[in-house]
Amino acid sequence: MKGDFQMKTHRFDKVCVIGLGEVGLPTAKYVSKLGLDVFGYDISIEAVRKAKKEGIKATIKWDEIPPVDVYIICVSTGLKENTPDFTSIFDVSKKIKEKIDLSNQQTKPLVSIESTVVPGLSRRIFEDIFKQSCLLVHVPHRYWKEDPIKYGVKQLRVIGGIDKESLKVGVDFYQNFLGIPLYVVTPIEVAEMSKIAENAYRYVQIAFAEELRMICEELGLNFEDVRRACNTKWNIEILEARDGIGGHCLPKDIRYLITLSKHNVLLKSAITVDNQYREWLKGRTNKK
Question: pLDDT tens digits for 15-26?
Fold first, then answer.
């Protein structure tokens, strides 16, 4: 980064990571190893116990968390009747608001939302819950537990800020203090959209492979032979077709994207294909 973003202007001595699951715990460990004073919070006793074993000062009691310089939100978001459910984000944001010293707004804390959200949610939280009493950035995680070295906490990340000051301080924290490479975007809604778009794109790619596999086998062709042949072309990379699109993020995030617009025919079709593919796999298994 160049210019203003290279100047360290904010204190980052104390950090609280909220949500100590698959993303939050590695984040807390990473920040702690850099020498910052890290606190962890989770409503799960098991998550807190695991974090403590890793040397994190973790607790299930919010009252035990002191006011800090940076709050990193890593709680899970979900679906409720196929619509986005951000209850966890709202709940922790209200807790953070309790810790903010409204009498000393010259040193506002930085709040970073790493959890997956939809465009507009960060701004809504900033206005309705925080009442502009903090600095706020969205830095969606790209953590992949299968390869935490190459695709862990420290990898190229997208960052957006609610305003110029938030973005400046956020870049300072993530890039200059944590050493995480950043791709800076404005407005913050671009960062929010990027996470669900990249996961939805991956979902569609896998669904294409699944449908192609069904077509190939119906025609008596080996799918892997066809896939490898196609992938010799410089701009083609057909993915593997395995056991259906699982995990938490991809099935959730494509549905987040679907709820945002009526232009969602391809996205809905990809979900249909994955459902058909799962039934097709069951049929093949039953025949054996």
Answer: 999 999 999 999
Q: Which CATH number fits domain 195-281: 3.30.10.20, 2.60.40.10, 1.10.1040.10, 1.10.260.40?
A: 1.10.1040.10
For residues 40 and 20, the answer to whether their CB atoms sit within 8 Å is: yes
The backbone region for 279, taken as left when phi is positive above 0, alpha when psi lies in -120 to 50, beta otherwise, is alpha
The fold for domain 3-186 equals Rossmann fold (3.40.50)
- What is the per-residue pLDDT for 102? 82
Question: Domain spans of the chain?
Answer: 3-186, 195-281
- Contact call for residues 48 and 60 (beta carbons, < 8 A): yes
Per-residue pLDDT at 4 = 42
Q: For 35, list phi and psi in degrees, rounded to 5.
A: 95, 0
Q: CB pairs under 8 A, 24+ apart, for 23-26?
A: 23/74, 23/114, 23/141, 23/143, 24/72, 24/74, 24/75, 25/50, 25/51, 25/54, 25/56, 26/143, 26/148, 26/152, 26/153
pLDDT in the model for residue 9: 58
Q: What is the pLDDT of residue 6?
A: 42
Weakly modelled stretches of the chain, pLDDT under 50: 1-7
Cis ω for the linkage preceding 187 (within 30 of 0): yes
DSSP string, 119-152: TTHHHHHHHHTSTT-SEEEE------TT-TTTSS
Written as one string, the DSSP assignment of 53-96 is: HTT-EEES-GGGSPP-SEEEE----EEETTEEE-HHHHHHHHHH
Count the helices and strands in the chain (H runs, E runs).
Answer: 9, 10
Tokens of 193: 């959209």
